[in-house]
Each structure stands twice: as structure tokens, then as C-alpha cells.
Amino acid sequence: MRLLNVGQGDATYIRNGSSRVIIDGGPEPTVFGRYLDSLRLNNTTIDVVILTHQHLDHYSGLQELFKTARHIRIRYFFENKDPAPAVTLAHLRDSILSRMDRDSLIYRDTDDPCSNRRPICTITMTGGARLHIMAPQPNGEGANNRSAAVKLIGPDSASFTMWLAGDAEHEEINWFEQAGYDQNPGIKVNVLKADHHGSCNGVTPRYLDLVHPQWVVVSLGVRNEYGHMHTQAKRIYRNAGIPWYRTDQNGTITIRSPGTPNGSYTIVPEYPGTNLNGPSDRTSHQIGCT
Ligand SMILES: [Zn+2]
Fold first, then answer.
1. d(CA 28, ligand 1 centre) in Å
2. Distance (Å, rounded) from C-alpha 143 to C-alpha 279?
3. Rounded distance between C-alpha atoms, residue 19 and residue 283, angstroms
4. Of 95, 235, 242, 257, which one has the fewest beta carbons inside 10 Å?
5. CA 18–ligand 1 middle distance (angstroms)
6. Would the pLDDT of 290 be above 60?
7. Which of 174, 176, 208, 210 is nearest to 194 (CA)?
8. 147 Cα–ligand 1 center, Å
9. Span from the CA of 149 to the centroid of ligand 1 (angstroms)
10. Residue 281's pLDDT band (boundaries 50, 70, 90)?
């Protein structure tokens, strides 16, 4: 699994056996396109693509998947299908719909991810890893609080688990517990992808109690205009004793799990260093996130 260094945004690539999954595509088609090249994903099938929510820093890069010259086949595309005015998102949706007609792509709504009126859809990858895709908060305030959560479970569930929930903010983070996701599929994991790029509204002490990660990985851009990572978020991670890697300083972060009983996963950043500060963090104390 790789958290790709795509600047201010999110893009994750998961490989298990011959199965390939992409969660979000970052803000820049050209940057994401270079990863599709370097990961040798042209002329392949991507089994599952998940757009966590309707913000450009998550969907824009996904347009590259549909470029004819890449010859990439997509089996399942998940997103919440909320109405959205953005023209680039409309283009992406047009591409999805035309593939449905032509190429048997299956287009799923994260509000009903398995089309069976159940909130959790489980996908088993060919190497035995599993992916739980969870419906977002039904009436979440703003696009961030409509983020679909994903839990990745390695082939041997004891060796590696990870929780990714897009840009979910306090409102939806609290709702995950109300929805019972802390019980089913279970929220306690080895690695947490920081919600909302290390924003103070993407973490609470309670959330970290429940997720109880050994590591946090954060996807964000250098000198982003939001001041991510926020001082308060770092304080919460630090108080819980949880170290972090961040894509703006560590580059692409690769996590490997051997998939054997009692095997331990490894996290390898492109550039070393933990608990780093970034150029944006100087201005990162946010009013309203005490
Ligand atoms: Zn975002």
C-alpha cells in the first residue's frame, strides 16, 4: 500500500495478489498520471476505485484513469453521487457513465456500497486482504463529512490493518462511533491515515482512543494554504504517543505486510524522519479547534 506524494490532496494505491485498488487521485492529473506510469498501471485492470468525497484534491487526478491511451480497465467505481456543481467532477462522471455503457464498469454509491441496503461492503482481494467500504454520514455537513471510510485488513488480519476516512471532520468522526463502525467492522487498526490532511478538525483524543494506531500517515502539500498540519492535531497525536510520517516531508509512504501469521508490517518513507514539521506549520494554530 502506498500513500502517494501528490501535494495537497490524497491518493492511495493498494496492491494485494493481482488485485489493485485506488482510493482518491490527488489534485493534479499530471502528477497522478506520473504515478500511474511509474507503478506500471497502464494496460491493467484496477479492481476498485473509491472517491472518498467530492473535493478536487481527491477526485481531480482520477480523470487520468480514463485517458484512452492508458488502456486502464476499471471494474468498480465507488463515490457518494451527491449533486455537485464542479465542471471537472461532471467530466469525471461523464467518463464513468460512458465506461458503464461500453466497458461494463460497475458504478456504486457509497451510501449503499454493496447495493443491498447495508452500510458496509466487503471486498476480498486475490491475495486474501479485505477492504471494508463504509457508507458515510447520511446528512453530514459539507462534503468532508460525507467521506466514505475504508478499512484495509491484511491477508493475515493479525499482521496489518489500516483506517482511511478521507477528510471526515469532528462531526463525522463522532458519527462513526454512533454508526457502530467501532464494533463492525472495528476501528482499531495499526495505521491511521490522518483525516483531512492533519487538520485539527480531523482528529480528537476520543478518535485516537478508538483507532489506537501505532502510526499515523498524513497526506498534504508543502506550503499549503490551510496551515496543515495543525499544531493542535500534532499535539493530540503527540499526547497519545503516536508518531507520524507526512507526504510533504517524507515523500511517498510505502507500507508492506508479509501476510503471514505474526509477520510484522513495515513502513518505508521515501525520505526518513518522523514527527517532522513542515513549512506550513508555522501558521497552523487554528481558532475554533482548541
Ligand atoms: Zn482533502
1. 13
2. 27
3. 41
4. 235
5. 29
6. no
7. 208
8. 10
9. 14
10. confident
What is the distance in A from the centroid of ligand 1 to the CA of 57? 5
If you average pLDDT over every residue of the chain, what do you get? 95
pLDDT at residue 260 is higher than 90: no
Domains annotated on the chain, with CATH: 2-110+118-275 (3.60.15.10)
- Asked if 81 and 97 touch (Cβ cutoff 8 Å), the reply is no
Query: If you measure from the C-alpha of residue 203 to the centroid of ligand 1, how many angstroms do you get, rounded to a whole number?
Result: 14
Report pLDDT digits (tens) over 83-127.
988 899 999 999 999 999 888 899 999 999 999 999 999 999 999
Mapped onto helix, strand or coil, the DSSP state of residue 63 is helix
Please tell me the distance from the alpha carbon of residue 250 to that of residue 276, in angstroms, as a whole number.
Answer: 9
Dist. CA 144 → ligand 1 center (Å): 8
Expressed in angstroms and rounded, the spacing between residue 9 Cα and the centre of ligand 1 is 5
Task: Say how many Å lie between the CA of residue 176 and the centre of ligand 1.
Answer: 19
Query: Ligand 1: distance of its center to the CA of 243 in Å?
Result: 21
For residues 183 and 200, what is the distance between their CA atoms, to the nearest angstrom? Answer: 25
The whole-angstrom separation of Cα 42 and Cα 19 is 14
pLDDT band at 258 (very low <50, low <70, confident <90, very high): confident
The tens digit of pLDDT for each residue in 166-225 reads 999 999 999 999 999 999 999 999 999 999 999 999 999 999 999 999 999 999 999 898
Ligand 1 centroid – CA 12 distance (Å): 13
